[in-house]
Each structure stands twice: as C-alpha cells, then as structure tokens.
Write a structure and sequence with these properties.
One of its GO terms (biological process) is protein import into nucleus. The protein is α+β, with helices and mostly antiparallel strands. It is built from 45 helices and 29 strands. The longest helix is centred in the last third of the chain and has 34 residues, at about 900-930.
Length: about 1300
C-alpha cells in the first residue's frame, strides 16, 4: 500500500547475517543469483513489484556526524531468521524455470501463524513449514507435497493455511521451550486453495507416523475450468474441538455470502453448506475471524461483510449447528453505530478486514472510502481504522433464535484516519489488504497490501504515525506479518510482542518498537498529486525526537523496548506505569559524564570542578537506575560486542571470547568506581542517592558472578563426552535466558542466545526467573541423551543447575564482602539476590533437589549422596540469606513483613528438615563403611558431628530450632544443647517446650538452673504453676513460690500433664496449701502474716469440706470444691434437711475473702433463711404462750435454735472472720428508717415471721451478745 520515499538513510550497519560458512554478503542468502532487478527498482529496495503508490516522508531522518550510530540501528528492522535451506533451494529451482510465470501465478505464498509461531511458504507444489523462532530453522522444517488435484488449472492461485494446535490451552512458556529445546508442537495443517475451494488436511505433521493427507474437493471442481469469482472462498478459519486428537472444525465463506462448515478428522473431511445467501442481497463476505475461546462448550466467530459485522455461534456436536447471534451495521447513517457521517463527501465505503484482540473485547476494522475533493474535483481514497468495543459477555448464546438487534458494539474512538488522501485503487487491490493487531507499540496495527508492502500505523499524541517496513536491498514482497511471541510475564500482562514480517526473499524480520515511535511519520495532509505534499512540520518533529532520544518520545511501560533500547540500555527496576521523560538536562549530564569518564580512562586525571558541573547538570537529581551514574554503569556492563556475532553454539563458551569480554567489562567498571571516588561523586551518591550507588555496585556483583559462572561452565563442558551444544542443563538454561531476552527486546534478535546472556549483565535475575518457570523442562531427560536411568539424568541436570546457582550467589556475596567500603548504607535497601524472582528460582531448584534426594535414598554411591548434601546445603544457605535480607529491608522501611516472615519460616523448616535427614543418611553410610559392622559409639558420634557441622551453622544463623534440638537429642549431648542455648536467642524457649511435650520435667528444671530467667519467664507465660514453684524454690524466691503454690491450690484443675488435665482432689489442694505456708514462713517477706492467714482460711474451708462430705458418697480422694460450690451444696434439698450443714455454711462464709462475701450477699441471705427453716417457730411460739414460759425457759429454748447459734458464730464477741466482719456485708439489725439489707430484714421475709418474728429477732440479738461460740485460735495442723 505504501512505498518509501526517495530520501533514505544509508544503513551500513544493516548487513544481513552471514551464511553457514561465515561468508558475509550484502543481503541474506537467497536463491536469486541470476535474477537482476528491473530498471524501475527503487534504491530502497523492499516492496516488489516496485510501482510506487503513496510516497510518504521517509521514516528515518538523516543523522548528524556527532549523533550516535546505535540510534539509527534501533530504528531499523532487525533480522530474525533466514529461510530454511530447503525453502531457498525450492525458490531457486522454481525461479530458474520461469520467472514471469512465478509472479503471475503467485507461486510464492507464505504466512505466519500467531498461535503456533510457525511460518509457512508454498513454492510450486510444496508446502514448507518451520518454526522461525527456533535456534535451527532447518532442523524443524517440513516439506509437504501439495496434491496435484488441489493446484487446479492454470491461472491465479490464492492459498490459505490454517494451523491447529492440539493442546487444549497454550502454555505461556511453550514458545521458549520449543525454540531452545527443539521440541515440536503437535499441529494439524489445513491447506485451502481459495480459488478452487479444494482442501487438503494433515492431522499432525510432527508425528513419526504421519498419515497421508486427506483431500476434499467440491463437486465438479476438477472438471470446471471456468471458475467464477462467486465460487471462490474469500476466507477460511479452523479451530480444534474439545474432542479427540486430530479432530477440528473449519468455517469458510464465499464472496456471495454462502457459509460452509468442515469437520476434520484423521480419516475424512465432512463438507457441508450451512445456508444460501446468509448475508442478504448485494452483500459480500470479506473475512472471518475467531473470537478468543473462553470455554470448551462452543465457539464463536465474526464475519465482516460490505457493511456489517456479524457474530455467529458454533455448537459443537456430531452435526455442527451454526447460528447467527447478532448483526451490527458499520456502514450506516446512525451517528453512534455507523461511520457514514464521520466522513464528508464520500461516495463509497469498503470494509477491508477485521481483527480481534486477545481478550475478544476489541474489534479493529480497516476501512477504505472513495471520496472526491470538491475544490479540485479530484478523486482520492481515504484509509481509516475503526475500533469497536464488544460490550457483551463473550460467547453468550441468546435464548431467541434470530439475531439480536440490540447494540453490542460501541465505537471506542472516532474513526482514525490513516491516509487522508491516497491514490484511487481498484476493488481487487483493496480486497487484498489485510490487517494485523496486537504488536508493539501497544495499540498499533500493521497493514499488508497486495503489492507487498507492510505499514505499521500507530495513533499517538492525537495523530496517526506511519512506519513502513523497508530494507536496503531487494527483499521481495512482504507475505505476512505477526507478533513475536514473548516470555511468560509479558503474556500474563497482555503485552504484545514486536511486529515480525515474512518477506519473499530475505527471511523474517522484526520491527522494533523504537523504530515505530521514532521513525513513524504523519501521513501527508494534501493530495499526493500536488507537489510539496510532505508536511514540513513532520521533519522538525523527527529532528526533535531524534535529538532527545526515545525517552522523550513516548511514556511506555518498563518492559517496553523503547526504554530498554536506549543508548545506555536503561531499565527501571521498580514498576511504574510510565517512564520519566529524559529532558535536555539528562542528555547534557550523561554526555558530560561520558566525556569525563573517557578522559579519565585515557589520562587518569579528573577535570577540575567536575563535581559542581555534574551538580549543575542535575546528575544527582534522580534516584535508582534512572540516575545518570547508574545508567552509565549499566551501559558499561551491558555493552554488546560488535565483533562477537556467531552461531557456533557451545564453542563460544569454550573459547576465550566470553572471558575476555567479561574481564574487560570488569576492568572498565572498576575504573568507573575509581572515577567516582576521585571525582568525589561516590560520597555524594553514597549519602544522597543510595539506591543509585547500590545499583552501580550490583553491576559489579553480577559481573563477578558471571565470570565465575563462565569458569564453571567451561569445566562442565570439558567434562562432557558428547557435543556440548546438545547436552548440559546449564547450557539449556543459558539458552532460555538469552532467548527470553531476545524476545522481549527485538533489537537483540540478530544476536546469539549465549552472547545475549553473557552481555546483558544487569539482567542476571532472569537466570533465576527462567529457572523457576522452566525447571521441569530443563531437567527432564531428552530423547537423545545417553542411555542412563532417568533418575540419574535428572540428578545430573539438577546438580549442574544447583552448582550454577551456588556459584552466582557465593560470588555475589564474596564481591560484596571484598568491596564493602564502596557500598552505601544498606538500611532499607533490598539487594538483588533477595528479590522475589531470585528467591523463586532458588526455591524451585531446592525443592527439586530435595525430591530427587528422596527418590535416590536407595543409591549406594557415597559420592552421589555427599554431592546432594553439599548442593542442598549451598542452596539452602543462599535461599535463607535472601529471605533474611528481604525481611530486614522491609522492617527497616517500616513495611509489613508478616506474610514474608511466615513464608520464610515455613520454607526454612522444610529445607532444614530435608537437609538434616540427608546429613543423617550420609553420616550413617560413612559410619557403616568405617566401622565394618563393629559397634563404635564414639566413632558414630564423631562422624555425625563432622557431617552435620555445616547444618548446625545454618540452623544457628536462621533460627532452625527444631533442627538444633533434633541434632542435640540424637547425640544425647546436653552440653551442646546448653552451649547452643547461650548462643541462639530463642532456642531456650523451644527446648523448654520440647521437654514439656515429652514430659521430662526433671531435665527441664535442671536446664533452668543454668537459664533461670528464661525458664521463669517461660513458665509464667505458659502458666505452668506446677513447675514454676519448684523453679522459684531453686532460685530461693520463697515468696514467689508461696504465691504460686497458693494460686495452684485455688485452681480447679492441675496443669496439663502428659496431654491430660486432671481435677484437683482435697489432698492435693491441702498439700499445695501446706507447701505455700512453709514457703511463706521461709521467705518472711513484708506482709507474710496476712498471706499465712489467707492460707489458713483456705485450709479451714478444705477442712469444712471434709466434714461436710464425710457422710456423703464423696470421699477425700475425689475432686475438691470451691467455697461457693460448697455453700450451694449445703443449700440443696438434701442439704437443707441436715441441721449441722445449716451452721457449716456460715463457717465457710466466715473464711471466704471479703470480696467474695460482698459479691455473694444474696447467697448469704439465703443461708439465713435456711437457718430459720431448721426450727419449728410456730410450735415454740405456741408453747411459750400456752405454757407461760419464763424468761429463763424462753432463753434456754432459743439457745437451741440455729438462728441463735448462727448469730453467735457470725456476730458474737468470739466470732472469727477472715479480713473484716459480717457487719460489713450484712448487718444484724438495720438502722431505723434505712432500707439497706440486714439479717433482720431478711428474716422479715420468712413465712413464720408474722407469727414468731419477735422470737426470731430475740434469738439473733441474744446470740450476738452470747459467748456460745468458742474461737479456734490454733492453726490448722498439717497432715502427716
């Protein structure tokens, strides 16, 4: 559709990759040696045929000599993959036969399948399929013979290929695994001749038992030589069903609106016409596209017609049921729904192609409008992009049978004009234009036209920007375009990859995001038939963009190539939605820093006043990796060697290229540190920009780590017997990391995976990211590996990866220790080896190692066991140190670390438990070898200590108390346990808990002799009073022991003993009280007399209980009762019948605490009423009246009543009460006119008070004055 302008940049750096023999050419190897370009071939070279259609301003402005060369490189297409050799040979053979016929019959056709990342090309009667992202495109290339019956008669042939992947869901990591490991996907191929409507089907091209293709031709297709346009297919799509492997469905449409359905299986193709003229009179079907599948129950697809978008539902059954869901009119007069009123003066509108985003919610439609310029009366074509939002739930089948009429699509934005005024084209050319969506920059589309051009359109800053794919040599037509599959993280974030295009002659190329942002230009505003149609403002805009770099062009995501591809390879570590724009001050500061550092390297001197100049330029203003110094440091360590571009595989690592490159970078980075110190910038950064300084030092850490990793890999490669390019888990992981970096940064696509890995030093975290995501694929044995047991192979792979991880982390920590004076204060900063991605990788390999160690428990090889132990030990140390660093940083920043701490403790305990079990196995095996079946406990202990020495240190550093306890317990070494308890804070508590669980109280108390405060605090927290008083006795803290024993005696139950709780008996309670009394007497602290009195009161209550229950079924060996429970027992129905119990309750109340008496006044009142019930007061009253008792007889009779005796016990002169008196709680007589409770008021409620009330009151008053009650001054005697 577009052709480049005559002004173009000479791109010497855009040399194609050399061929297998290392010969450099001016273009990728193609079979067109004898073909000479026609005279009309433009100087720029890409689109063929070369008829210019819409000249637009060149996308690449000329560079000044002072501008950096790499800026131009980043705005050019990047070579991705060459054609397989078989494709090139087929092209050459075909062109030698008849060049003109090749172009006329479209013998070359090709495309890229987005879902499988496979490319295809048809050369003559052969269909070639290969993975363009694979390391070796020749290895996975398949050539399929196209049946002659499918080719049809002479004339123009239009091909369409559908690829069906047989997995239910596509794993995000599939593409990387397939590219690096050469694993082929399970794919079915459907080839359709759109002209003849013939179809051929291969159910699975990658199986060894690949069947012959299934051919399906329409009736009479072979004989009919006069195929009409209406009889062709305009589009065909296919998708797997939820059924068996090899079964799928297809939908095709004809221009006249007829829909066809196909059911494919490995044996037959069922073709069925769905219905005639579904689109209505005069409509034409343009294209079909699947809506992204949300479930396995049904499928939906969109159909684009001349004026509508239709949605159809496919019900999967033995006979496919296809129903129309809804229809949306696009070319209509409705302001909200249609687009006719969006364009003034249009005569005809064509809907050219339709595409749907990955979520199925956004539809993009390419629109062409035939218009007429009223001023000049000239005709022109306007190309636009319409974006519609699907606002209904995907795959919702309506209840009604007919299509829905309500609004389901809404315009996301007004119609975006791509080309305002373009040359008028015929309908055939317009129908050949295709649209692709989903690539970078986000929201951009790529437009393919039949003349072989590819143009990226990106709506940015309120205007449309265009970038045309162009190479400086004849690359032929652009056959198709897709997006480069990204790594897992980007796919999860719904971020698309870079645009990739399939050319006719030059292989596959990628368009960097920065190329679109920087190289994109605005379309011309005026008719192209006039001179000077180029907008001069565009050139000024291009110059401004090129001058200030990509940072000032577009605020993009962190992962965006536009940021990564900058001259200093900048990337923010922290995540934010947009990258800060780099202004002029940043550029000036960076230029000053580069120049000053370069002068320092050459002369060894620092420019005078450099620090002030850097301050004035704002070099110290930004924090983190956006800081100028951090960017410079990163550019040093991430430099790509221009001379190192090769595909020799493992030979690169074995050579000195890697080592020399890394050593050179390390020396340059060290020089940079010296420069910072001498210029006094180091002090400024260390104090005010600690994040930036830490980033600079981490670059040195990662450099040192990779140097040691390269040494390790060289050793591993030298030990391998087979070709190192095909073995070694570390080699595979390096390939994966490099492949991931290349996919995420398309500028690196022309570099080798190993080169990218050893060059992108600052992205070393990706090593652990790939380890966590792809570990199972890496350690799983390949089919071509040496014939060993799968377990042995897996262990070997895991050992290799573990050694690499340990090497990286240990080298980092060693560098940090050696260069500690250079580091800023690390308070609140998280080092790179403590980042979540690193922890995830270490945990993945640690988990794999521990699982393999369990499976290898029966292995007799001692060296294998020792190696597993050593590697698990190293990984455990690295992982736990990473967690410790991250938690420490969170705490210092004041952030919540609870969740991370829980994860840390859980993984720590799991790893240390596995590590200790491994150590025990190794120690036992060593002992069996040395002891020669003779029992030697000293030798066993010595070996056990030696093997577990490293485990012991790790557990001590990270609080692995269970491991420390198990180790000491298995050794029966109390001395070691005591020493560890002195060194490890918290171990003493854990040891106390373990001893209590085991019921070893004697050992617990003996440990308390050495750790008195720890044990006292622990017993107090756990409320173990049964042990606490013993510890107080040992500490000679008798008052505390007495208090603890007293509380223990008053508790209803004894503490837990051997997992059971028991109720206290009377004898146990008395024993604790006796001990409490003895301890109080021994301590004799201030107020001990009151404490003894309290103990005596409790003893008396116990004695009363013994007397109360003596005649009952309860014996003294059973549970004891509290004072209140004892009173309630006496007030039961059975207790009220006993006269003696009615007095005993007052004894119990007397020895209760004052607070208890006060809070239970109601219970005391009930006791008085019960005491009144014990005598027959009406009989006494009647006798005194009828017999005429004297005062002496009346007094004698009242002295025998319970009320008299109770009054004498509670209120008499000799009454004994613990702390206070009964008058304080319930006075005997109330004051006149007072409503406060008293015994007199209580008795007034008695049923006999009306008859004998005066006798009752007389009895209690006389009892108060009598000495009937004899006080017991002696203390309670202890039981022997």
């Amino acid at each position: 559709m577009f052709s480049p302008a005559t002004r173009n940049l000479r791109r010497k750096s855009l040399k194609p990759p050399s061929d297998a023999q290392g010969l450099e050419r001016d273009a990728p190897a193609t079979p067109l040696h004898s073909f000479s370009s026609p005279s009309k071939r433009p100087a720029t070279g890409t689109p063929a045929p070369w008829t210019s259609r819409f000249p637009i301003p060149s996308r690449t402005p000329a560079l000044k000599p002072t501008e950096k060369a790499d800026v131009a490189d980043h705005t050019q297409p990047v070579f991705v993959a060459q054609f397989p050799q078989a494709v090139r040979n087929a092209q050459e053979n075909l062109l030698k036969k008849n060049l003109t016929a090749v172009y006329e019959k479209r013998a070359f056709a090709g495309g890229i399948d987005k879902g499988t990342s496979l490319a295809w090309m048809i050369c003559g009667n052969e269909l070639f399929i290969w993975s363009y992202s694979s390391l070796s495109v020749d290895k996975g290339c398949f050539a399929l013979d196209i049946p002659a019956s499918l080719v049809g008669n002479d004339g123009m042939i239009h091909w369409s290929v559908c690829m069906v992947r047989w997995e239910n869901t596509r794993s995000p990591s599939k593409t990387e695994i397939e590219a690096v490991f050469g694993k082929s996907p399970s794919v079915g191929i459907i080839l359709c001749n759109l002209t003849t409507r013939g179809i051929v089907y291969w159910s699975d091209i990658y199986t060894e038992s690949r069947r012959d293709p299934i051919i399906d031709l329409p009736n009479g297709a072979e004989e009919d030589s006069n195929i009409q346009h209406r009889d062709t297919f305009s589009s065909i799509i296919a998708a797997p069903t939820s059924g068996n492997h090899g079964e799928c469905i297809g939908i095709a449409c004809q221009p006249n609106g007829v829909l066809w359905s196909f059911q494919f299986n490995p044996d037959v193709i069922h073709r069925r016409k769905i219905s005639e003229s579904l689109l209505g009179n005069g409509c034409h079907a343009k294209s079909l596209v699947w809506q992204p599948r949300r479930n396995s129950s049904d499928l939906s697809f969109f159909c684009l017609t001349d004026s509508e978008v239709q949605c159809w539902n496919v019900v999967l059954s033995s006979r496919l049921i296809v129903k129309n869901l809804w229809t949306h009119t696009v070319v209509g007069d409705d302001d909200d729904l249609g687009i006719k009123k969006d364009i003034a003066g249009q005569k005809q509108v064509w809907l050219l192609d339709l595409q749907v985003d990955e979520r199925g919610r956004e539809l993009s439609i390419l629109v062409a409008t035939f218009c007429k310029d009223r001023a000049s009366s000239s005709n022109f074509t306007q190309y636009s992009l319409l974006t519609m939002l699907y606002n209904k739930a995907p795959n919702t089948v309506p209840e009604q049978r007919g299509p829905r009429k309500e609004r389901v699509l809404e315009k996301k934005a007004p119609l975006q004009v791509i080309i305002p005024k373009a040359q008028v084209e015929d309908e055939v050319f317009l129908s050949s234009m295709k649209l692709r969506v989903g690539g970078k920059p986000s929201g951009s589309v790529i437009i393919l036209s039949g003349d072989g051009t590819a143009t990226v359109a990106h709506y940015w800053r309120g205007s449309m920007r265009l970038y045309q794919f162009d190479l400086p040599w004849d690359a032929g037509k652009v056959l198709d375009a897709s997006i480069l599959p990204l790594a897992e993280e980007a796919e999860v974030e719904n971020e698309g990859g870079a645009w990739v295009v399939l050319t006719e002659k030059a292989g596959i190329w990628a368009i960097p995001e920065k190329a679109v942002l920087v190289g994109g230009v605005q379309p011309p505003e005026r008719s192209l038939s006039r001179k000077g149609s180029s907008n001069e403002g565009i050139r000024e805009e291009e110059k401004r963009i090129q001058a200030f770099g990509i940072g000032s062009v577009a605020p993009r995501r962190v992962s965006s190539e536009a940021w990564r591809a900058g001259s200093s390879e900048n990337r923010q570590r922290t995540s934010f939605s947009g990258v800060p724009q780099r202004g002029a001050n940043d550029e000036e500061a960076e230029a000053l820093l580069f120049r000053s550092f370069h002068d320092f390297v050459l002369s060894g001197r620092i420019e005078e006043g450099l620090l002030e100049k850097l301050r004035d330029k704002g070099a110290f203003d930004k924090e983190g990796e956006t800081n100028v110094f951090a960017r410079t440091s990163r550019s040093i360590v991430d430099t790509l060697a221009k001379h190192w571009t090769t595909n020799r595989g493992a030979e690169i690592v074995a050579s000195t290229v890697v080592s020399s490159l890394l050593v050179d970078k390390q020396q340059k980075h060290h020089n940079f540190l010296q420069f910072l110190a001498l210029s006094k910038s180091h002090d400024e950064l260390a104090l005010k920009q600690r994040n930036s300084m830490l980033s600079i030092m981490e670059h040195g850490e990662k450099l040192s780590s990779l140097i040691h990793l390269r040494e390790l890999q060289s050793i591993l490669l030298s030990q391998q017997e087979k070709k190192p390019s095909h073995t070694g888990s570390l080699w595979k992981l390096i390939q994966l990391v490099g492949e991931k970096a290349r996919r995420n940064n398309v500028i690196l696509m022309d570099r080798d995976n190993v080169e990218v890995f050893y060059s992108k030093i600052s992205e070393l975290e990706e090593f652990f990211s790939c380890l966590s995501h792809y570990l199972d694929h890496i350690i799983t044995p390949d089919n071509g590996e040496q014939p060993q047991s799968p377990l042995r192979i897996q262990m070997g792979h895991a050992f290799e990866l573990s050694s690499a991880c340990i090497t990286l982390i240990q080298s980092t920590l060693q560098y940090r220790h050696d260069q500690k004076d250079w580091y800023p204060s690390l308070e609140g900063l998280t080092p790179w080896n403590s980042l979540p991605v690193v922890r995830s990788g270490l945990w993945a390999i640690a988990s794999s190692l521990t699982e393999l160690s369990k499976e290898a428990a029966g292995v007799d090889d001692m060296s294998v066991k020792e190696e597993i132990l050593s590697l698990v030990q190293g990984i455990t140390d690295a992982l736990l140190e990473a967690y410790a660093g991250s938690i420490t940083a969170k705490i210092e920043r004041g952030e919540d670390s609870q969740g991370l701490s829980l994860e840390y403790r859980a993984r720590r305990d799991q790893l240390l438990r596995s590590l200790y079990q491994l150590a025990k196995v190794v120690a036992e095996s060593k002992y069996q070898e040395l002891s020669k079946d003779a029992e030697d406990l000293e030798l066993r202990g010595s070996i056990f200590r030696e093997v577990n020495s490293a485990v012991l240190l790790t557990a001590m550093r990270h609080g692995g108390y269970q491991t420390l306890w198990d180790l000491c317990y298995d050794l029966s070494d109390a001395v070691l346990l005591r020493n560890l308890m002195h060194e490890c804070v918290g171990l003493s508590r854990f040891a106390f808990e373990q001893l209590i669980k085991r019921g070893e109280y004697g050992k617990l108390l003996r440990l308390g002799e050495e750790f008195p405060e720890d044990l006292a605090h622990f017993l107090k927290e756990t409320e173990r009073n049964d042990l606490s008083w013993l510890h107080h006795i040992y500490l000679k803290d008798f008052p505390s022991a007495s208090k603890t024993l007293h509380a223990l005696a008053l508790s209803s139950t004894l503490p837990q003993t051997k997992r059971k709780s028991s109720l206290q008996s009377l004898s146990q309670r008395k024993r604790f009280l006796y001990l409490s009394k003895i301890a109080s007497l021994a301590g004799q602290d201030e107020g001990f007399e009151l404490k003894i009195a309290s103990i005596e009161a409790d003893l008396r209550i116990i004695k009363l209980q013994e007397e109360i229950v003596r005649d009952d079924d309860i014996n003294e060996g059973q549970e004891s009762l509290g004072a209140l429970e004892l009173i309630r027992r006496c007030l039961t129905k059975e207790g009220r019948r006993r006269r003696d119990l009615s007095l005993k309750v007052f004894e119990v109340v007397a020895w209760m605490t004052p607070s208890l008496r006060e809070s239970n006044r109601t219970l005391l009142e009930e006791c008085w009423l019960n005491a009144a019930d014990q005598d027959n007061w009406p009989a006494i009253y009647q006798a005194s009246i009828s017999e005429g008792w004297t005062d002496e007889l009346l007094l004698g009779s009242l002295q025998e009543t319970v009320l008299y005796k109770a009054s004498s016990r509670c209120y008499g002169p000799n009454a004994q009460v613990f702390e206070g008196s009964f008058e304080d709680v319930l006075p005997l007589q109330g004051e006149e006119g007072s409503s406060s409770p008293s015994v007199e008021q209580v008795l007034s409620q008695h049923r006999y008070f009306l008859d004998a009330g005066k006798l009752m009151l007389t009895a209690i008053i006389m009892g108060k004055e009598s000495t009937h009650y004899a006080a017991q001054d002696e203390a309670v005697a202890m039981d022997t």
